Amino acid sequence: MENMKIISWNVNSIKARGDHVEKVLTEHAPDILMIQELKGLEFPAARFEALGYTCFAKPQKAYNGVAIFAKDPQAKLVTDVLPNDPSDEQSRFLDIELNGVRYINIYLPNGNPVDTEKYPYKLGWMDRLHDYAEKLVHDRVPFLIGGDFNVIPADIDCYSPKAWAGDALFRPETHAKYRALTNLGLYDAFRIFNRDAEQYSFWDYQRGALQNNHGIRIDHFLLSPAMVARASACYIDKAPREWERPSDHTPIILELS
Prior knowledge:
alpha+beta; Deoxyribonuclease I, Chain A; 6-stranded mixed sheet
């Protein structure tokens, strides 16, 4: 297989960050770009198709929304629905297939406030994702899951564990669901290559979070065993977080050989 570069990025509004997305596409020339939080029904597919990408999008009015751009026109949509909850109308899931590999883009629910229906929805969504991944593992399908997981995996992944205690992103129940995923044999791509602390993908807009590096790592790639064998690098590109009118997330980049 050829070398590939795959990027995941929560853009926090495609309308506000369209220029930033175009800049990332032209500067990095990824084979696949996964974006989350489109925030609106209008998706400017033609703009990105002009750059040589096939676009798959699942937008939603005002909130959520996910899209995948693929450089190879052979990429095909598998599904834009995470199974096992017919009542779920939120746009948070895309699965495409290319050359026998499945590339899954997720915008996992935030879950806050935890004393509302939002937290059970988050945990239920994680159960459904686990079941989806488990079947792929059972069927020996090579795959990866990229996106905004809204999960801080461990103390090392946030500037202040005490400040995040009790938050839906950091609660023990959330960690248990995340471990259930990794226990399927999935690997956190970033931590294969980087064990350092203070490696973040999100900084709040408030309280000088970026300037003080008060961040969290919640954007991930989870790799099936077959994909781990192909992984050659995984790193966070902090530069877009410092652009004018940036997203509060920054891209995470995976390289495959």
